[in-house]
Amino acid sequence: ELKVEQNPLFLSMQEGKNYTIYCNYSTTSDRLYWYRQDPGKSLESLFVLLSNGAVKQEGRLMASLDTKARLSTLHITAAVHDLSATYFCAGLHSPSYGGATNKLIFGTGTLLAVQP
Amino acid sequence: DGGITQSPKYLFRKEGQNVTLSCEQNLNHDAMYWYRQDPGQGLRLIYYSQIVNDFQKGDIAEGYSVSREKKESFPLTVTSAQKNPTAFYLCASSILGAGNTIYFGEGSWLTVV
C-alpha cells in the first residue's frame, strides 16, 4: 500500500529566502503530483512528474523526482508572501495486479507561511 | 467556461439525515473522484469512477454512496451510517490514463450537528 509522507508539516520563512519541501513515498508510484491549496479553497495543480529525474519549474517553484530514492522535492526560490499556502504531494497508486489507476494518495501537506 | 462545479458550497444537516453533494463537469473527462479532507490533513479517496455506470470504492467508502448515470455527473450521498461526516468534500476529474492531471472542484463544506 502506497504511503506518502511530507516534511516539514509547517514551514515559516522570510521573504527572499530559499527552502525545500520533501515528499517521501513508500512503494513504487507511477507518477508524483504537487498541488497548492489556499485556506478554505480547492486544490490547484502545480506539477505532474512523470519519470525518474524529471524536473519542472514554474516561477519560484521547482519540483523534482528521484524514483530510486522514492523522493520528490519542491524547492522555493526567493520566497514571496503570495506563496503562502498549503502544499500537497500525492503519489499515484498502482494496484498489485499491475496496470495503473488514477488513485492519488496524498501526503498530509506542508503549511507554508512566508513572512514579510 | 470548462470546469468542475460542486454544490452546495456550504451545507448544514442534522445527525441522522442523508445528504447528497452534487458534482458536474463539462471537461469531457471519463474519470471522476470524490475526496474527503479533514482540518489540517491531506485528502482521502472515497469513491472513483472511470466510466459511466461503474465505480469503485476508495479508502474510506463506508457510509457513502455514489452513482454515475451520466458522464458529466458524479453525485455523492453521505448517509446516516457515516459516523463522522463533518468535513470538506472535493470532487475531481481527469482524462483516463496514469499521469494525467487531476482537476478539482471548489469543494463542499458539510457540517452535521
Topology:
The complex is a heterodimer of chains A (116) and B (113).
Chain A: E1 4-7, E2 10-14, E3 19-25, E4 32-37, E5 43-49, E6 55-58, E7 61-66, E8 71-76, E9 85-92, E10 104-106, E11 110-115
Parallel strand pairs in A: 2-11
Antiparallel strand pairs in A: 1-3, 3-8, 4-5, 4-9, 6-7, 7-8, 9-10, 9-11
Chain B: E1 4-7, E2 10-13, E3 19-25, E4 31-37, E5 43-51, E6 54-57, E7 64-66, E8 76-78, E9 87-94, E10 103-104, E11 108-112
Parallel strand pairs in B: 2-11
Antiparallel strand pairs in B: 1-3, 3-8, 4-5, 4-9, 5-6, 7-8, 9-10, 9-11
List the defining traits of the structure above.
heterodimer, A: 116 residues, mainly beta, 6-stranded mixed beta sheet, 5-stranded antiparallel beta sheet, 11 strands, 53% strand, globular, B: 113 residues, 7-stranded mixed beta sheet, 4-stranded antiparallel beta sheet
